[in-house]
Specification:
Blueprint: E1 4-9, H1 16-29, E2 37-42, H2 45-55, E3 60-64, H3 81-86, E4 91-94, H4 97-102, H5 107-119, E5 123-128, H6 132-136, H7 140-152, H8 157-160, E6 163-167, H9 181-199, H10 201-206, E7 209-211, H11 217-224, E8 231-234, H12 241-248
Parallel strand pairs: 1-2, 1-8, 2-3, 3-4, 4-5, 5-6, 6-7
Helix pairs in contact: 1-2, 1-12, 5-7, 7-9, 11-12
Bound molecules: phosphoenolpyruvate.
Phosphoenolpyruvate binds next to strand 8.
Length: about 250
């Protein structure tokens, strides 16, 4: 059975004390969530060490929001995968649309980042998704396929066990506009097929594919009821423990 995952992407929000309080609140409420749901918090780099302490030994896993495309050395301002594992990270998000859009994240860089992350023992949450113009031109299938082919087709079926895909239509991120459950399911099923075409049906069947884009407690149930939606990558609603846990209660 595929893993159900609810991952909170805190982005550049909260101070360190606020982040610790949020992590503690998520841990405190996590007992309500069915045991088969993996909870993840992805925090800013500055928060990873103390939030890692707050979730240590609990069912809440720690994730980074990004990592460097180099292993170590003279790369001022970058954070390596070994630094992430040393503070207890189990996951890193890669290829979020905000990084692609504002920080020039390319598929080539994402191949390097994914390679380093997997080699360090991190699991990767790779984000894919089209922008509004691409959706309106009905290019969303092609865009997602190209992003997956360019990055994930460089890896092996074994590597895929440690990779989660998050489908995040850019037009739905932080806008309050959610893809309908049918729109999301259509593309999730397509993404699973793109994975199956390269890695086989078994790998594709076992892979968790998350939906992201204005997911909240009021719409999560409908989305998570879909056959190919295995959970969510949550932005705004992950900043309130009640909303985050409310989403995780929606399976
Ligand atoms: C995100 O950025 O990963 C996201 C899904 O944001 P929001 O839930 O705020 O749309």
């Amino acid at each position: 059975m595929r893993k159900h995952i609810v991952a909170g992407n805190w982005k550049m929000n909260t101070t360190v004390p606020e982040g610790i309080a949020l992590a503690e609140a998520v841990v405190a409420k996590s007992a309500e969530v069915p045991a088969d749901v993996q909870l993840i918090i992805a925090t800013p780099f500055t928060h990873l060490y103390p939030c890692g302490k707050a979730v240590e030994g609990t069912r809440v896993a720690l994730s980074a929001e990004n990592c460097a495309d180099k292993a170590k050395g003279a790369y001022t301002g970058e954070i390596s995968v070994d630094m992430l594992t040393s503070v207890g990270c189990e996951y890193t998000i890669l290829g979020h649309s905000e990084r692609r859009q504002y920080y020039g994240e390319t598929d080539e860089k994402l191949v390097e980042k994914t390679r380093l992350a997997l080699a360090a023992g991190l699991k990767v949450i790779l984000c894919v998704g089209e922008n509004l113009e691409e959706r309106e031109a009905e290019k969303h299938f092609d865009v997602c396929k190209t992003q997956i082919v360019n990055v994930l087709y460089n890896f092996t079926a074994e590597d895929m066990k440690n990779i989660v895909i998050a489908y995040e239509p850019v037009w739905a991120i932080g806008t309050g506009k959610t893809a309908t459950a049918e729109q999301a399911e259509e593309i999730h099923a397509f993404i699973r097929k793109v994975v199956a075409d390269k890695f086989g049906a078994e790998v594709a069947d076992e892979m968790s594919i998350l939906y992201g884009g204005s997911c909240k407690p009021s719409n999560a149930k409908e989305l998570f009821a879909m056959a190919d939606i295995d959970g969510g990558l949550i932005g705004g609603a992950a900043l309130k423990a009640d909303d985050f846990i409310g989403i995780a209660l929606s399976f």
